[in-house]
Amino acid sequence: PLYCPLVVDGVEGKASSGRRFKRENPADIRQVGTVAEEGTQADARAAIDAARAAFDTNAGNWIYNYKLREQTLLRTAQLIRANADRLARVVSLEVGMPMRQAVPHVGAAADVFEFYAGLAGKLYGESFTLPSGSMINLVKEPVGVVGMITPWNFPLTQTARKVAPALAAGCTIVIKPASYTPAATYELVKLILETSIPRGVLNLVPGPGNVVGAEIIASKKVDKISFTGETGTGKRIGAQAGMEVKRVSLELGGKAPYVIFDDAEVDAAARAAVFGMFRNAGQACGATTRLLVQEGIHDRFLQRVVQLTQKIEVGPPSRPSTDMGPLISQNQERVVQEFIRYGVDKGFHLVTGGHKLEGDGWDHGYYVEPTIFDHVDNASRLGQEEIFGPVVAVTTFRDEAEAVELANAVDFGLVAGVWSADYPRALRVARRIRAGTVWIWDNYAQPVEGIWGGYKQSGMGRELGYHGLNDFIEIKQIFTDGTGLAMKPPYGQVIKE
Ligand code: NAD
Fold this sequence. Notes:
seven-stranded mixed β-sheet; six-stranded mixed β-sheet; globular; binds nicotinamide-adenine-dinucleotide
């Protein structure tokens, strides 16, 4: 099996409890995929202390030596690319992600490190001279010690999007990886530690969210929390961080709509939709979960979507031809099946899929068919709740106003898509949808140069791009007197002579 140790102050170690936890292989649960150290509250504290000390002593001149940070990030990108095959296999094994998706996933993580390497030496501030000659200097400083709590669905890129900009900014870090994917996270951390990064800058503590994660959130020694995960967990973390006025970024759930107008090019729109619907078995925060289709194109569009869906090959992630692998866990499989039963009970039209796959190599994994329900009421649970699996709801609309209304009628606002041959209309709709990203004529494109983040209950803050760097920066004003006067005019408010 794969293994995940603790990494504290540059040293790999065991949990103080002496305990380990196991992660099964979701494609074949007879196998143990990963064994990880089960970190404790004391282990979390030790990691936080190491990160705090590295920051407070400016270990290796980390805070000011942007060249060292740039080199660390560039070297990490090189190491990721050099180890791409191994990393992809680890991700595929832990997540159940088909190799065809795991390989580009690794490349995307390397892209993130390269992008932020280029920004590490470009943290210019601002300067302003007042009429008196006094000067305001606004300097950018790292936010400090960052606690990162990550999910399992895209473990390398989710971690890279936090770690790379935080390192570029000069922060120090404690990561609590998702318990389904500790080894993928560790493999990335291990590569970063092969660079000349100073000891204590990057620490890793696998273990339960309510133990290790909770300590990171509660600790006064942690300046910022960067969390990606479920909206429910994010709300609790945000509330707790708020009590300490701790900086917090939240990347949470989604319920993405894809709006298809009558004039859409059927084949291109259907391909874009299906890619977003079933990538990583729908276990994606930005997954296309609601197809909002104009009445006149409904039959033609849905027919093409169903054709493409029925060709999806569900099977072992390691098989090169596999398009969709298993779900992450028994619990996730149960949740997905409950939603399917709910859809059937509600009388929504089950167009394709709807079953757990059995026989032919599927028996020992959490395999569920790609599933589409038609004529779904957007106000029902299928239209409102994040399923995090391969289940999609189709709803028709009459006109542009109704499309926008339906797209926005959820608590989430992470991403959305629009397809119309009428560009001004597509643009109007893109502007009206309340989501962090809206794609026109594409789906699930997430270049590092752009941003990723949510409106409404999909989160706070933005990852990727310049904005992703700003999330790890504090702005400080340094004011310097330019008058040379001992008795400056405002002092007269307090001093008479
Ligand atoms: P989760 O909320 O169950 O877990 C996320 C992390 O939080 C894990 O590391 C977990 O151990 C930890 N955690 C759980 N309870 C905690 C607590 N009380 N205190 C501290 N830490 C705690 O989410 P998940 O199942 O790992 O991930 C799936 C979810 O993540 C989905 O809702 C998905 O939409 C969301 N997600 C969002 C984005 C985004 O960018 N917006 C990206 C990927 C995933």
